[in-house]
From TrEMBL:
Keyword Nucleus recorded: yes
GO molecular function, one term: zinc ion binding
Region (Disordered): 47-66
Swiss-Prot/TrEMBL keywords: Nucleus
Organism: Aspergillus thermomutatus
InterPro entries with a match to the protein in the record: Fungal_Detox/Toxin_TFs (IPR052761), XnlR_reg_dom (IPR007219)
CDD domains: fungal_TF_MHR
Positions with biased composition (Polar residues): 47-60
Descriptive protein name: Xylanolytic transcriptional activator regulatory domain-containing protein
Record-linked SMART domains: Fungal_trans
One Pfam family linked to the record: Fungal_trans
GO biological process: DNA-templated transcription
Domain Xylanolytic transcriptional activator regulatory: 110-187
Length: 468
């Protein structure tokens, strides 16, 4: 029964060329699977029970990438032709295949596999609570917990992929009533796990990781509400009452602010990553309010209200940089995941807009903040293609404002926007040839309704084709 899942776990475990050594363990993959979906913690790097990445691989990066591509291809082939009839196993494998993809993969693969996973959920009825009306004794507690974990894992992928790929939501909660998993739902499979496997692969603070995941699901639900309320091109305009109600939900989320004493490096990264999700969601929520005020806002209050909103956006972008600083100082970037680069984009966009400020000091400070994000993107681009794409786009936008901008911050001459380009910067890079002037103009327009996420997947596709 676990053959498909185990094969897919192997694919997922080595799907990315990472600075940390990847691990494949058939027994642990099969045993850990029911809880693996609950978190991005699922053995993407070799992690000991204290949550520390192990020593770097002896393989060269090219060998690692070739092995990753071959394993993904084999896993996909086995999924299509393996003859597995258990739909739960098919669903588990699809979720795993949709979570990781190697540098040479089609950039649409996560969207494709997540779509398959969601369709399987609908077919099996996982979007509906089996206890609606009356308790259903035919469903065991263990199976009920597994269904909740699987459904909400698919929900998480649906919301964040919809945001980062600029695509419609596949799941409408108006038709779904499966409850959020509880802490018991997430850890129940550990009770029967052999002690030797638990000691080897389960962090001591696994319960803490589960609690972070539950908060992440609640945050993801708010992200979905944001996308539905503010990012429907043909939907009704949000009212002030709706915006304030959703804002209150963000405030009530109860996001953990500090690491628990003595927790592992993995758990520390997970907390920081949860905080990055939160700041990206907050910027995504407030950003449309700068382009169009909600209905019901008195015109006499418009200027003061939007100034307050702008301050909240700037605070979220600044907090993103503070979290990144923690990740760098505590040497946690080796834990970076496929979602890590996209989580920086909202803050980078705000820093870019602030680079247009008329005040020279504010302009320099904003560029420094953006430069720091660019450095982190540069560090991650060795592993994730999307980081290269994001960095290339923002590099071209920066050079529109500061023509003599150098990738090396020490060589940057921050003159006023609009100054003549130096000769060495007049030539266009490959990314520059893909970006037309209208895209850059929209990207840097303060009040534009332009959605950066709708353009980025196309850029990533072109970038992948050129570097295949």
């Amino acid at each position: 029964m676990h053959q498909e899942v185990t094969t897919s776990c192997q694919a997922v475990a080595i799907a990315r060329p990472s600075r940390a050594k990847t691990v494949v363990n058939v027994k642990s993959a099969a045993a850990l699977w029911p809880s693996a979906v609950m978190s991005e913690v699922a053995t993407t790097t070799e992690i000991n029970r204290n949550g520390n990445p192990q020593s770097p691989s002896d393989l060269t990066r090219n060998q690692d990438e070739e092995r990753s591509g071959a394993t993904i291809a084999n896993a996909t082939c086995m999924y299509d032709n393996g003859g597995e009839t258990d739909m739960i196993v098919q669903l588990q494998a699809a979720v795993l295949l949709g979570f990781w993809h190697s540098k040479n993969d089609d950039h649409t693969q996560p969207w494709y596999w997540t779509g398959i996973a969601i369709n399987l959920c609908y077919i099996m009825g996982l979007h509906r609570d089996p206890d609606t009306g009356n308790f259903n004794p035919s469903v065991t507690d263990r199976r009920r917990s597994l269904w909740r974990r699987l459904w909400w894992s698919c929900f998480f992928r649906d919301r964040w992929l919809s945001l980062t790929l600029g695509r419609p939501l596949r799941i409408s909660l108006n038709s779904c009533n499966t409850p959020l998993p509880s802490l018991t739902d997430l850890v129940c499979d550990l009770y029967d796990m052999p002690r030797a496997i638990a000691n080897a692969y389960i962090p001591d603070d696994f319960t803490q990781l589960a609690e972070y995941w539950i908060v992440l699901m609640r945050l993801t639900k708010l992200l979905g509400d944001t996308l539905t309320l503010c990012y429907q091109p043909f939907g009704p305009s949000p009212t002030l009452q709706q915006v304030e109600a959703l804002e209150a939900e963000f405030f009530r989320l109860g996001l953990p602010e500090r690491c628990a004493e003595g927790q592992s490096r993995l758990a520390t990264f997970s907390l920081y990553h949860l905080q990055l999700h939160y700041q990206a969601s907050v910027i995504t929520f407030y950003r449309p309010c700068m382009a169009k005020a909600p209905e019901g806002l008195p015109s006499s209050q418009l200027q003061a209200w939007q100034a307050e909103i702008r301050n909240k956006i700037d605070a979220a972008a600044l907090q993103t940089n503070a979290i990144l600083d923690n990740l760098v100082r505590e040497k946690l970037l080796d834990f970076a995941e496929p979602m890590t680069p996209p989580l920086l984009v909202p803050a980078m966009h705000i820093h870019l807009l602030n680079c247009k400020a008329g005040d020279d000091l504010l302009r320099r400070l904003s560029l420094n903040k953006l430069d720091f994000c660019m450095l982190v993107m540069q560090e991650m681009q060795e592993t994730y293609t999307c980081a290269s794409v994001y960095r290339g786009i923002f590099l071209e936008a920066i050079r529109q404002l500061f023509p003599s901008y150098s990738v090396d911050a020490a060589e940057t001459d921050v003159e006023a926007p609009g100054a003549p380009a130096s000769p060495q910067r007049q030539d266009k890079s490959f990314m520059g040839t893909l970006l037309n002037d209208s895209f850059i103009d929209e990207l840097m327009h303060e009040s534009s309704l332009f959605n950066i996420w709708e353009y980025l997947p196309m850029m990533e596709g072109h970038w992948a084709e050129e570097n295949a």
